[in-house]
């Protein structure tokens, strides 16, 4: 594989290959863009079929973090790391400490956190070697479980979509179909029930859905039938790629607003189909940014109230995205990307103009063009 060709495709700033024989560490750190601030993103551990797959994944994920942080209004860039290995068999203290040394060597250009296949405990080993790690345990001054923050952002983002649809953001009496009954969904249902929405909940583990329904009034739906529910809102909080050729024709929903990552099977194709069908889609990475906002708050001395307030601003973010989409007649995910790119460009220029360094860098000519 032509590694540099792959790196140059999406404008990554830096890719770091980390190897340590003693610790059996093979990891790749991708730094996509640090215009707004240090690149923040978790470390994924996965049994990649090839090193090529690991590189492609880290490039894709780190770029996604740039957009997510930018739209969330954070002063952070996009980064991500992958460790090649089996998270059930290959983890050791030395592996995560060796990885921590590599992170430390980047002197704050990249800040890591837990992700799929890694845990808060693994990050404690990383933390022994570097301060550039977030998402650590509450007992160690960290922010703990991000789900309540993610869920609150999803809830207010859903209200913003309802405002677009009806002129009022009230969810009283509205029907919401929730897919997945996990950490995020549980808190989303709590908000919805408090406001007086009617909830329909599914999970492949029926008991998880029923546990939620024992606390809040609503109906259980079989996992295969969730796309057919005659509800106002679909709230995916389980898997990715659930908006696809097979599911869209079944949907009667007017809004899709949920916490799951990578909801559109094919971003361009399915984002456009939703627009044509008149379904208001809250872009996943914008509406589910509450968790990222929460860990980002650790960097400034953690205050849960401040993190929750910032997650509440997702309401305005979704309103802005919907208005950009309307103005430019583009799908909402494109509007969200535009919002991110515009913010990076504008703040980047301001930083260049007012930093002493760039006055002499010769790039000022470009800035004032
Ligand atoms: P979770 O594992 O606690 O919950 C997911 C639930 O979905 C599980 O109960 C699982 O049984 C269920 N599920 C899986 N496949 C299903 C199917 N086909 N039909 C119905 N239910 C199914 O995860 P979570 O932390 O609640 O996260 C949910 C989603 O939100 C994930 O996509 C995650 O990546 C994303 N997300 C979570 C956070 C967070 O703060 N936890 C932040 C951003 C994004």
Task: Give a verbal description of the structure.
- By secondary structure, the chain is of the alpha/beta class.
- It folds into 2 domains: 3-63 and 78-139, Leucine Dehydrogenase, chain A, domain 1 (Rossmann fold), CATH 3.40.50; 147-289 and 316-341, Rossmann fold (3-Layer(aba) Sandwich).
- Helix content is 46%, strand content 14%.
- The protein has helices at 3-9, 51-71, 93-105, 120-127, 147-166, 183-195, 206-215, 267-277, 284-287, 290-298, 304-312, 314-328, 332-354, 356-359, 364-367, and strands at 14-20, 25-33, 39-40, 43-46, 77-84, 110-111, 175-179, 198-202, 218-220, 233-236, 255-256, 280-281.
- The strands form 2 sheets. Strands 1, 2, 3, 4, 5 and 6 form a 6-stranded mixed beta sheet that branches.
- Helix 3 (93-105) packs across helix 4.
- It is globular, with a radius of gyration of 21 Å.
- The two termini are 38 Å apart.
- Mean pLDDT is 93; it is low at 358-369.
- Bound molecules: nicotinamide-adenine-dinucleotide.
């Amino acid at each position: 594989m032509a590694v540099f060709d792959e790196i140059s495709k999406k404008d990554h700033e830096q890719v770091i290959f980390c190897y340590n024989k003693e610790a059996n560490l093979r990891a790749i750190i991708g730094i996509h863009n640090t215009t707004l601030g240090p690149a923040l993103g978790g470390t994924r551990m996965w049994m990649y079929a090839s090193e090529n797959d690991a590189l492609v994944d880290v490039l894709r994920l780190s770029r996604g973090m740039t957009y997510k942080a930018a739209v969330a209004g954070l002063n952070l860039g996009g980064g991500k790391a992958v460790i090649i290995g089996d998270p059930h068999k290959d983890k050791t203290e030395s592996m995560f400490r060796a990885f921590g040394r590599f992170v430390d060597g980047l002197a704050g250009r990249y800040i890591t956190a837990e992700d799929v296949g890694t845990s808060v405990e693994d990050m404690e080993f990383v933390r022994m070697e570097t301060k550039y790690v977030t998402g650590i345990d509450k007992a160690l001054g960290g922010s703990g479980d991000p789900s309540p923050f993610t869920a609150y952002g999803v809830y207010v983002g859903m209200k913003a979509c309802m405002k677009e649809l009806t002129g009022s953001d009230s969810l009283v009496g509205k029907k919401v179909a929730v897919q997945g009954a996990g950490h995020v969904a549980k808190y989303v249902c709590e908000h919805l029930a408090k406001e007086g929405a009617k909830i329909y909940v599914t999970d492949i583990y029926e008991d998880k859905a029923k546990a939620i329904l024992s606390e809040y009034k609503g109906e259980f739906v079989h996992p295969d039938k969730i796309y057919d529910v005659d509800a106002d809102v679909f709230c995916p909080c389980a898997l990715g790629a659930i908006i696809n050729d097979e599911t869209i024709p079944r949907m009667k929903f007017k809004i899709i607003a949920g916490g799951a990552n990578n909801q559109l099977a094919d971003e361009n194709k399915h984002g456009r189909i939703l627009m044509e069908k008149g379904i208001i889609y809250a872009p996943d990475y914008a509406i589910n940014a509450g968790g990222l906002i929460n860990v980002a708050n650790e960097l400034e001395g953690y205050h849960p109230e401040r993190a929750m307030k910032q997650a509440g601003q997702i309401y305005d973010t979704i309103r802005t995205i919907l208005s950009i989409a309307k103005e430019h007649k583009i799908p909402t995910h494109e509007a969200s990307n535009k919002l991110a790119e515009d913010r990076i460009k504008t703040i980047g220029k301001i930083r260049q103009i007012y930093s002493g360094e760039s006055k002499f860098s010769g790039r000022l000519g470009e800035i004032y063009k």
